[in-house]
Protein 1
Amino acid sequence: MKTTGRFSIAFAALALGVGVALAASGADAIKERRALMKENGEATKPVVAMLKGAPFELGAVQKALKTYESAAEKMPGLFPADSQTGDTHALPAVWTDTADFDARFKKLGADSSAALKSITDVASFKANMPAVFKNCGGCHEKFRTKDN
Amino acid sequence: MKTALALGGVLVVAAVAAASWVLTAPRPLDAATIRAVSEPGDPASGRVVYFLAGCDSCHMSPGQSDPLRLGGGQELKTPFGSFFPPNISSDRADGIGAWSAADFANALMAGVGPREQHLYPAFPYPSYARMSEKDVRDLFAFLKTAPPVAGRAPPDKLGFPFSIRRAVGFWKLLYFSADRRPRPTDTVDIEARGRYLVEGPGHCGECHTPRTVLGGPIAARALTGAPLPEGKGKTPNITAAGLSDWSEDDIAYALSTGLTPSGDSLGGPMAAVVRNLAQVPQADLAAIARYLKTFTPGGGA
């Protein structure tokens, strides 16, 4: 009896602990993924300006592509089941069509790596960068909504 | 005496019913407009109108990416229920292949279907009504070149009382009758061209203007952003005030690439609009940008 009681308490404590951990992980995941997307945006800003005619700067392009590579690797792990609601713009499709969601990040990573190799000057930049950016819109169309 | 009163009551009810019936009658286009749209159209120009109007966004067959496969049936969720936009492919039985130019123009510009029935304004005819007759006949000519697709969309699933089609007549009395005439499109004035594109074929206000509980646009808040019909999220404010941080170039560039000056990429339903606008001449995107940068609600739209 005593053992069972102690066991129950231990179990309850464990369950509570897991619950707290999960709650924290959901909110943390949202914070973390939003920070990554923010970094993507910041890195993209000068690159968009270059596509519109600002002077070409290879370093900024490479920095952006490396930012996407690293984000593409981390992002799929930042959408735990308990992060569907809260301060997030993620649509339910992230959790109902996870395979497609993950595949898109894989493609963004691969396209970014390829562009890092192929982009060496203005001409190769203008030829190869738009294809990388197609990934952004495709994913935002299906998996993100905004409330601006 | 009692009988007379009862008879009077019946007469009043009958008169109101008859008046409502007359008031809510579908009103097809006048003969002059029908004549103008029935002249032969130019499919090459119609292709541009098609992508400006974004017909594919709602009418393309679901689960595939060809913007010219127009079998319909893609669910459009709204607060009034689910619409299933129809097949507008050139299929003679299931699409609009057997339609006359008059049928087409009545649907597009008057919201009246080929059986003289009201069409629901989920189909943005309140905007398309402002299209020029030339654009309408060119668009019709282009649509005829799209391949036939067999099959019909499922029937709409609307809640009561929105399921009463005749009631759309009341909606039209409230929101449609005032401002439905075609506007000129061939103009050298870039701002006027922009206004035409925004208010007519581009139908920007259909998503960017907030609506009343009855689904009518609130003109005083035109283009200031609105909740997305499907529930989560909002469309942004695209008036001069809302776009104060954007240059005209920024707007035109974002419309055809999705890329914003802040390094974001437009998503949600706007992503499909961007795919379409990538097919449109730069001059038209520049015109849209010019007009939006000058637009303040109250001054029109």
Note: The mean pLDDT of chain B is 93.
Protein 2
Amino acid sequence: MCRGKVASRLALCLALGVPVALQAQTAVEPIEIITTTEAYDPIRYEGAYIIAEAWRELGLDVTVSPTEFSTLLSKFYDQQDFAVTISGWSGRVDRLDPQFYLGTLSSDNAVMGANNPGGYSNPEYDKLFEAQSREFDQTKRQEMVHKLQEIAAPDAPLAILFHRDEVVAYNKNNFENMKAMAGEALYSEWVPMEAKPLTERKTLRYGGPQSPDNINPMLANTVWAWKWMRLYYDRLVRLTPDVEVKNWMAESVTAIDEQTIEVKLREGLTFHDGMPVTSADVKFSYDYLVNSDYGYFNSYLTALDNVEILDDLTVRFNLNAPSAPFGSITLSQISILPKHIWEKIENPMELAPGDIPTVGSGPFKFSQYTLGEFMKLDKFEDHFHADEIAIDSVEFQIFADSEGVFTAIQTGQIDVTAWRMEAGQIPLAEQNENLEVVSVPDFGYYHLTYNLRKPHFEDVAFRRALTKAIDRERIVNVLLDGRGEPGSSVIAPVNAFWHNAFTERLDYDMEAAKTELEEAGYSWSSDGKLQK
Amino acid sequence: MRNSGYLIRRFLQALLALFIIATLLFFLFRLGLPDPTTVLVSEGLSPEQREDVRRQFGLDLPLWNQYLIFLQNTLTGDFGTSFHYRAPVSEIIWERLGNTLVLMLAAIFVSYGIGVPLGAWLSWRRGSSVDSWGIFFGLMFRSAPMFWTGMISILIFGVWLEWLPTSGMRTLPYEATGFWDKILTLDFLRHLILPAMIVALFYLGSPLLIMRNTMLEVYGEDFIEMARAKGLQERSVLFRHAARNALLPVVTQLAVTIGLAAGGQVVVEVVFSWPGLGREILNAVRTSDFPLAQACFLIMATFVIFLNLLVDILYSTLDPRVRLS
């Protein structure tokens, strides 16, 4: 009798004991993927569901939360209140320099509100990141930049989903010699200077849904304002479509040493009001930005100590530390303003819209700006490059959405779409015999960022497994119709000099993902839920 | 003069309602919308630079302090500076409001001008196939989404037939010295036709159906019997006796429609790239442009409240049975 009791207890323990031992592991918490609404971007919206489906296969509880875009940004950057967010970085010409994108993985930027919301922090990465930004020798810097990508890739702090091709269209009966540029497509600074009209009309008409926030060069905070203003404000150098530095206002740019850059201006440059451009204007423009509260260009100017006038046409930039991007990015992004006009303005940030000066020295001069409707520039005949420019004026028509832009290019109301077409419009444009469709790779990227502060996401193996479960190839083929490239690094393949093609890619492989989890000590419950 | 007390009371009530709405708007946007500088992260601004921008916007002040400034400025008609455009809000919205009103009033004029007599006529022919078709089309355009009807009309009249322009208020580039100079042109009329037609078709259903149904009720009244008994012509009974009495609900509907019109039809303004207030509201909310959004909604509220007040007063004139008290 007594023995029987013991035996039955033992049996009970055996029966219960096994599952008890297994349940010592707890199920992984449900994961919420924050993505855009379908209306804002159907690609990121659909993509989230493809990813969620695969993660469920790994035994995870996954929900997708389509979120209004500004709320998404707020949760992502300002509150860091997310586990997984799908977002993107647009490719801007100044981001061809690796500094910006590499910086999004630097731990300095992991603070609230900065651009490393995932919180990736790797001392080795940070140290090398710091070093490359000071490296003046391009070859050495390239090595460092490649190494940085190599360090970050296996850690999978985020999944680079894809680089989306920029697909735009222009009217080929009206213009030729339209050369698209990576990341900028046809709304680059070069297209208006190179386009050749085929008809009597010598006005190049862009159309787009984006408009400048304002046209005050000491206040504008959007890329859409600067894409327009760079046509009438000139720069010392400009970046060519192949992203080479081309002397522009500068006749020569000489690095005296690692911290001193001497720039000699071309002779005979004038502003649109006829006043000559001198070294005083250059010094004034840089000092003006450094001393103002306007922060848009601050990151380019941190290395600048002072600007020194040597003679009427020569200035010297004295840097406080060697800076790799100064000679290319900074000199090509900072506009030269006329000192004689701006020095009289007391508070440039509080100018009424009607009082904002529009005098520059660029290849085009300001003509008209009607808020929310229309902008126009005329060719500046006295510009040193004027003989090469075949058009008389550039217009930009502002539409409410991309549907309006597309109707306008079909009806001949505009010549070029300034911004990418929707997936559904591309085949229609291809069938249209008046239109030429142009597709260029982008160096911006769409990413899925893990919040490394959240449980399980601090675990490299967990992130690697989740990344391997993302079928980037399928997202590009199905959602983008193949118009894009699966991503592997924050530096896009099209940015060939800086891109490292030999990093660990973590390509789609469900089996490998499961193995990775198993090896890290994860297991699956009897109903298939992932636990640890 | 018994009425003046009533009018003053109603006017004060309207002001109180506006004050409450302004307060709600102020807190709703600040508590409900994301920080206006968040979007600048995408432009590469660091947290310190964003803090500078917040200071320029006055968002570093305590909320109650911002609220007092807002109230004080609103009372003096100053809506502040738009966060996005960095320009005075009033400069932006008066122009936009004008653009919206000219489109909406044209549409309302057409829809009520056609809808009211047509509704009366349908009620007279009730039960006939004309009546059924009338109701069918009225309901159809009332229910069809305007972005759809708008896009179809753009496709047919703009892209295929190339009869009419499809976007904006004027052919670009244009130069105009002022609002009237801009709209008193043939070019503007051509741009107005498509969007106004789409809005008018959408609005047509209301006056049409309200008029028809009220007319049917009025037909049962004794005074109609009386008029017929007097041997008046059917046409005279219909328009002089029945229609006048059936107008009241239509007037209410008209006032509400005009009131809401100030906010524009966002969908139509987007589809036709019409630079109106509706599009601006959408942008303002998207970019968390508090001053601009507040002003837009406040203007809409003002229109609705005061047009309702106007209707109440008009009622007593239109219908002697209604007494103001």
Note: Residues 310 and 434 of chain A are 54 Å apart (CA to CA).
